């Protein structure tokens, strides 16, 4: 097994090509500011991109919350990224919490949010940065920035409408109301809602299915899906043709075809 990254307020595990990142600041409801979780997330994303033993990443939280987002006590005291003149706060956002959306948008492996509890503000936005979201009865979501007189400073306005559509994203962002698991499932924000004790097992089941596929093919497909969000059809088709040409030369493609015709499980090498 390759060396795991050193994290401060989270732990990382890797088993059978599936990495699991668990936030460990239940004392602050896994807040992203006022903790080391920003660095932990960014370091994990960089590690996953470089580590060819990783095919999927699950993100979850210890305790009652997935993540409460920004530390409101720090806001009141004007500490951390919330302190200083306007120009200082702008730079602190850029060098602080805005590193998360950039890292998550560039991560090459599929990501699954196992939303074990409240995911509020930037915590909700982190969920929406993942490819797949699974909830449980304790899941509570909210784009609540407006309730504190601020805006989604971490890219939430970009991510939420790509998950729920513009109209629903506008309603949730402009009202700041909280959404329970069943409603989030109806809106397509959550893909599934399962019993609390089945949340991580179900996330691992999905991740294991992804990890059973050709590793390079998984990463290339993730890149293609992300590119399709910003490219027109002609440019996407050109990119697809190039990626497909590469795919046809891979050892795992030949193994997949042979296994299919031989009616046996494939044995992928990652080449």
Average pLDDT: 96
The secondary-structure element order is EEHEEHHHEEHEEHHEHEHHHH
Can you summarize the main beta sheet?
A: 6 strands, mixed
Number of strands: 10
Tally of helical runs: 12
CATH homologous superfamily descriptor of the largest domain: 2-enoyl-CoA Hydratase, Chain A, domain 1
Structural notes for this entry:
The chain folds into 2 domains: 10-211, 2-enoyl-CoA Hydratase, Chain A, domain 1; 215-262, Orthogonal Bundle (Lyase 2-enoyl-coa Hydratase, Chain  A, domain 2). It is 47% helix and 15% strand. It has 12 helices and 10 strands. A 6-stranded mixed beta sheet has the order 1-2-3-5-7-10, sandwiched between helices. It has a 4-stranded mixed beta sheet with strand order 4-6-8-9. Strand 2, helix 1 (37-50) and strand 3 (56-61) form a beta-alpha-beta unit. The radius of gyration is 19 Å and the shape is globular. The model has no long low-confidence stretch (mean pLDDT 96).
List its traits.
alpha/beta, Lyase 2-enoyl-coa Hydratase, Chain  A, domain 2, 2 domains, 4-stranded mixed β-sheet, 12 helices, 10 strands
Summarize the structure.
With 271 residues, the chain is of the alpha/beta class.
Please specify the SSE layout and strand pairing.
Layout: E1 10-15, E2 18-23, H1 37-50, E3 56-61, E4 65-67, H2 72-77, H3 86-95, H4 99-106, E5 111-115, E6 118-120, H5 122-129, E7 132-135, E8 140-142, H6 156-164, H7 166-175, E9 178-180, H8 181-187, E10 192-193, H9 199-211, H10 215-228, H11 233-248, H12 251-262
Parallel strand pairs: 2-3, 3-5, 4-6, 5-7, 6-8, 7-10
Antiparallel strand pairs: 1-2, 8-9
Helix pairs in contact: 1-4, 5-6, 6-7, 10-11
């Amino acid at each position: 097994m390759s060396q795991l990254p050193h994290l401060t307020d989270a732990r990382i595990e890797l088993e059978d090509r599936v990495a699991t990142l668990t936030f460990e600041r239940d004392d602050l409801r896994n807040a992203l500011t006022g903790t080391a979780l920003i660095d932990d997330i960014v370091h994990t994303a960089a590690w996953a991109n470089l580590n060819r033993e990783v095919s999927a990443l699950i993100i979850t939280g210890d305790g009652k919350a997935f993540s409460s987002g920004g530390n409101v006590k720090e806001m009141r005291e004007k500490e951390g990224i919330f302190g200083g003149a306007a120009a200082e706060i702008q730079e602190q956002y850029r060098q602080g919490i805005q590193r998360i959306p950039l890292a998550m948008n560039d991560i090459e492996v599929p990501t699954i949010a196992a939303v074990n509890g409240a995911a509020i503000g930037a915590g909700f936005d982190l969920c929406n940065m993942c490819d797949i979201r699974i909830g449980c009865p304790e899941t509570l979501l909210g784009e609540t920035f407006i309730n504190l007189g601020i805006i989604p400073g971490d890219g939430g306005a970009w991510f939420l409408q790509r998950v729920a559509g513009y109209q629903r994203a506008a309603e949730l962002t402009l009202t700041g109301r909280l959404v329970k698991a069943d409603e989030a499932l109806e809106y397509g924000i959550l893909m599934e809602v399962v019993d609390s004790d089945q949340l991580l097992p179900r996330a691992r089941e999905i991740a294991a299915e992804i990890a059973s596929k050709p590793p390079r093919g998984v990463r290339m497909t993730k890149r293609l899906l992300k590119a399709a969000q910003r490219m027109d059809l002609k440019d996407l088709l050109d990119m697809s043709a190039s990626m497909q040409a590469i795919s046809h030369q891979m050892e795992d493609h030949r193994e997949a075809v042979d296994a299919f015709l031989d009616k046996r499980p494939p044995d992928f090498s990652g080449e």
